[in-house]
Amino acid sequence: MSAPLVEMRGLSRFYKMASGVVKALDGIDLDIRAGERVILLGPSGSGKTTLLNCISALDTPTAGTYVFDGRVVPRSDAEAMTSFRRQNIGYVFQFFNLLQDLTVLENVLLIQEIAGGRDEARARELLALVGLEAEVDRFPSEISGGQQQRVAIARSIAKSPRLLLGDELTGNLDTATSETVMQVLIDACEAEGITTVMVTHDESLTKFATRVIRLDSGRIVADDAMQA
Amino acid sequence: MSMLLTKRLARSLWRSKLRLFTVILLIMMGVTAGISFGGYAHNVENLYDVIYADDDEGVNLPDAWIILPSGTWSAAEADGLCDAISDGWSEAGSGLDVCEPRLVLDGVMFHVDVEGEEAMISSVWHGTDEGLTDKVWIPDHECCGGRIAGAENEIVIDRHVAKHLEIEIGESVEIGSGHGRLVFEVVGIGFHSNHLWFSPDGSIFPPKEGTFATGYLSAAGLERLAALDEGAANYILIDVQDTPAFDLPDTDEDEGQYEMTPILEYLSGTMVDNGAESAAVRDRGGMPSIELLRADLNGAKKSILPMTIMLTLVAGITIALSLHRLISSQAREIAILRTLGIPSSSILIGYIIAPLVIGAIGVLLGLFFAFLWGVRGMLDVYENIIQIPILTEQVPPELVLEISLLTMLVVFIAGIQPAWKASRLQPLEVLGGEHQIRLGSRWMQRLTARLPATIGLIIRSSLRKPVRLGVTFFAVGLSMLIFGSVIMMNASMAETMIGGLDTTQQWDVTAYTMPGGEAEIVEWAEANGAGHELLIEFPGGYPDDSKVYVALGLDTLTQTDSEAMRLVNLLEGRLPSQGEANPEVLIDEGMASILGWEVGDSQILKFGSEEVEVEVVGISRELMRTITFHRADLAPILGIEATGVYLSVADGTDISGLGDISLTVVVKDDVVEGFTDLMNKQSQMLDLFIFIGIGIAAAVLLNTLLMNLAERDSDLATLRVLGASRRRLGLMLLGEHIAIGLVGGILGAIMAIYGAVAFAKAFSQWAFYFVIEVDPYVASGLVAVVVAISIAITPIGIWRIHRMDLVDMAKGFSS
User: Fold this and answer.
1) Least CB–CB distance from B456: residue in A78, A102, A167
2) Which of A89, A95, A102 is facing B813, going by the closest CB pair?
3) Exposed, middle or buried, B91 (CB in 10 Å: 0-12/13-18/19+)?
4) What burial class does residue B518 get, using C-beta atoms within 10 Å of its C-beta: 0-12 exposed, 13-18 middle, 19+ buried?
5) Are B672 and B498 in contact (CB under 8 A)?
6) Is the minimum CB–CB distance between A142 and chain B shorter than 8 Å?
7) Which residues of A, range 175-214, sit inside 8 Å of B by Cβ?
8) Which pLDDT tens digit goes with each residue over B673-708?
9) Residue among B802, B791, B591 at smallest CA distance from B705
10) B334 and B188 part of one domain
């Protein structure tokens, strides 16, 4: 068996609030291997998003270790954390967060430029992969929510990340569109060899996962392999 | 309920403190400037009223001056002229109060400095016994003191001179007026109406300190100095009951229709009837010092309103932009309030009250600083440049009321539209997110499609709110207008003055003389190996107009001849030919502009009461209003061969001998140094304008760029989450700010250029006309200032990115 892509041991994230210390993550031990499609499930406040933030190095764990592809993930230097994200992580948000001043194609190109390698042919190829070859010159406000989310997926994989994270990425879409977007995401990530970790409330999406992890009160309460 | 809503709004405003303070600062600056300028104008106007008044404190300023340009009248002639004027006065209209002959002569002061070196200072001496009009003004102030000259060896020294040369009451001074030198005892230090603006005749700029002197002797004292008979005079002062209105040289309104018009016509006629054709009759508008101070005061008064409006307009624009941004960011809250049943009128009132409260705070702070520093600062500059003491200092309540209400009105107007917009927000649209849908600009996309996406993003984000950006550029342009136009006017003035002297006038010294005295000066020149050229400078006029110009007669009219002492800077037309039936002349560009005269015109000129028809063949650039003749054409008209001699002397030549044979001596280097001194004294004022201009430009740009940044928080956070480094985002911001600074700077420089041209036109007048020459260095400097301000604001944006809580921001990206 190959070495885990994500390796967390005893990971905790505590927040000091006026009412006391909130344990958002409390001693998480987690391995995620390359190629897995992981879905994180759990009620509000269970720690799903905090875990996602720690995986992406947006947030700094209070305690524990986190190794990504055999290397310790930086946790105190903001620029090193950004660099880690730039090199390894793709992110898809619920509200798409496309830049409204750029066209669909330019949104993808921008991320390539930030990652240091503009490649328009590949950007067009990725947009074709998510079924948007006809929309490349449109502005985000000129296409539907589902299409915007597909642009966000193309944007996230444009820099060939090792790991793609999604936070409630279908939460703003109707059921049918959610299914389409998820299928596009899975197909694109498989085609590109990208591991995925997604947070959702929607149990019906577990059919797209190879593994479902349930969290509650900052702890993993279930970790089930799924039939792909 | 409204109270709670207002409290909510106040707290929202407080969250954007930096922008709030910026707006208050702008209003404060507008009010401070308005009150300071207004207070300056009020106090200076009061001062002139005190000086010119017909009472124990004032000098009783005459209403008309009859001036014999060369030579003198005997006592009998002068008295005869006064009798003639008095006898026929009923023709003139208003009652005659005083007709008083005076003797005023050019001369020199021989001043020994602390190192024992004797300097020869060109001077004007007045023989002025305690008359009924145009008295010496000795204010009850520490600057001055003593009494007027009574005995024939006593003199009152002008305060300007006493200060520059450190002369005190009780000391002696040695002076001359073409007939050797005599010693006089200083018995007083004071001012004279003809020399409040302390520049020699023929110049509008004060000379270098210590190179020009005036003094006020007894009539007998001056007669003794000039070896003239008792009662000799060359001025007749006319004081009319009340103060009749006179023609202002800087207006074309109602020419020839003032109360003074029939009086001037009567006086001219009386001179002709009594054989004094060459005497010039002038009203207050024709007396350089009086007219310059009036025009300066008028300029200050004229600038109060535009200056205040301009500054408060910038503040108003900033308030409107800030409120729009506030309302956009609070749209959801407003929609919820409306959904909960809060009436739109309550929303409207809150958003109207907010700018009014901000305005009131700005006004109060503005008044505080105006009273604390502003007015006094302006008066300090006046006292430093004009060197007349301000006796009382007050700020009229009506000025305070006017500026405060005007500012509050601008603030109110600025707040109405955003408040109306807030009260009209549709809850369904806002809560449905429709108001946030923003369509990118297609033409902008096409324009930048070939650029890298990063640069395209910078450009498109900058231009996302074109109206806001446009209005910001307009406001920056206004601030550039304030200080850019002042800098440009200064640069143009310096070029006109010093550039003109350096490039077109090759003389070193001009020695002025009474008619016939030029031979002695030429003799001196030849004995001292100095180049020489005769000249005529003579005051001229026009029929039915009080404007006075210099008729200049030169031996050689040339643009290039290196032998000529004075070159002509010909702008249009050709050089005059000599010996035509109607003399051919050049008029200067100020005269052409103000009088509307053109090349090819025939015009009637007036010298004393003599009228002469001339042909205008060209337009030249001159500092003063000047008509240039061939001296050979002008001499027979005036009956004078020369009034002075241009001299070109070798370095180190002792010119003190000229003092004994000349009426007065002007040294070119002293004129240039005098102008440089004046510019240095003005630097305080210039610095103030620069401070105001840059401060406002910085505040306006800061406000807009902060709003841009705030609106882009989400985009920037997204890019950060997706892996964009702070350095890269910082460079993007820097690029954007440089682009905004460049566009704003270029637009600002263009506005400053047009503004300077408009200001120059508005403030140019007969005595002081100049044209704005656009200096590329000054224009690029203005652009550089705006770019620098823009760049200086970038770290604030970088700081915002730096302190961005990505975890918190990312939470907002998903539910």
Assistant:
1) A102
2) A95
3) exposed
4) buried
5) yes
6) yes
7) 199
8) 877 777 777 676 777 777 778 888 888 888 888 888
9) B791
10) no
Homologous superfamily (CATH) of A35-60+78-225 is P-loop containing nucleotide triphosphate hydrolases (3.40.50.300)
**Average pLDDT taken over every residue of chain B:** 85
Q: Which range is least confidently modeled, B53-57, B203-207, B240-244?
A: B203-207
Are residue B200 and residue B73 in the same domain, yes or no?
Answer: yes
Distance CA B144, CA B163 (A): 10
d(CA B18, CA B21): 5
* H helices present in B662-813, as ranges: 668-711, 713-721, 726-763, 776-802, 806-813
B722 and chain A: CB distance < 8 Å anywhere? yes
Domain span at residue B552 reads 509-648
The ipTM estimated for the assembled molecules is 0.81
Burial of B460 (0-12, 13-18, 19+ CB in 10 A): buried
Extents of the domains making up chain A:
35-60+78-225
Q: Which amino acid would we find at residue B291?
A: E
Count, residues in chain B: 815
| Domain co-membership, B259 together with B303 | no
Residues B422, B307: one domain? yes
Is A215 within 8 Å of A207 (Cβ atoms)? no
**A156: contact with B, CB 8 A cutoff:** yes
- Least confident span in A219-228, B139-148, B339-348, B719-728: B339-348
What are the structure tokens assigned to A184, written together?
């596009």
Task: State the amino acid at position B598 in one-letter form.
Answer: E
Contact A87 B722 (CB under 8 A): no
Instruction: Answer for the pair B625, B549: CB distance below 8 angstroms, yes or no.
Output: yes
Contacts across the A-B interface (CB distance below 8 Å): 114
- For every residue of B262-315, DSSP letters joined together read HHHHHHHHHHHHTT-TT-EEEEGGGSHHHHHHHHHHHHHHHHHHHHHHHHHHHH
d(CA B669, CA B208): 9
Residues 6+ apart with CB under 8 A from A11: A25, A27, A28, A29, A30, A54, A61, A63, A64, A65, A66
Q: Which of A22, A49, A62, A82 to mutate to test the interface with B (most CBs of B within 10 A)?
A: A82
For residue B656, being part of any structural domain is answered with no
- Using the 8-state DSSP alphabet, how is residue B27 labeled? H
| CA–CA gap between residue B44 and residue B39 (Å, rounded) | 8
CB neighbours of residue B55 within 10 Å: 8
Specify the higher pLDDT residue, B195 or B466. B195
Residue B82 to residues A184, B88, B259, B268, B798, Cα–Cα distance (Å): 110, 10, 21, 13, 81
B421 touches chain A (CB under 8 A): no
> Are A211 and A225 within 8 A, CB to CB?
yes
Nearest CB neighbour to A114, from listed B445, B723, B813: B723
The H or E element that residue B648 is part of is strand B644-648
pTM for the whole thing? 0.72
Residue range B461-518, pLDDT digits in tens: 777 778 888 888 888 888 887 777 777 777 777 776 666 677 778 889 998 887 788 8
pLDDT attached to residue B243: 76
Q: What's the CA angle centered on A194, arms A188 and A198, to 5 degrees?
A: 85
Interface of A with B in 62-91 (CB under 8 A): 78-79, 82-83, 85-87, 89-91
B433 touches chain A (CB under 8 A): no
What 8-state DSSP symbol labels residue A203?
G
Nearest Cβ partner for B438 among A89, A100, A168: A100
CB contact under 8 Å between B454 and A93, yes or no, is: no
Question: Which tokens is B815 given?
Answer: 């539910």
User: Identity (one letter) of the amino acid at B591?
Assistant: M
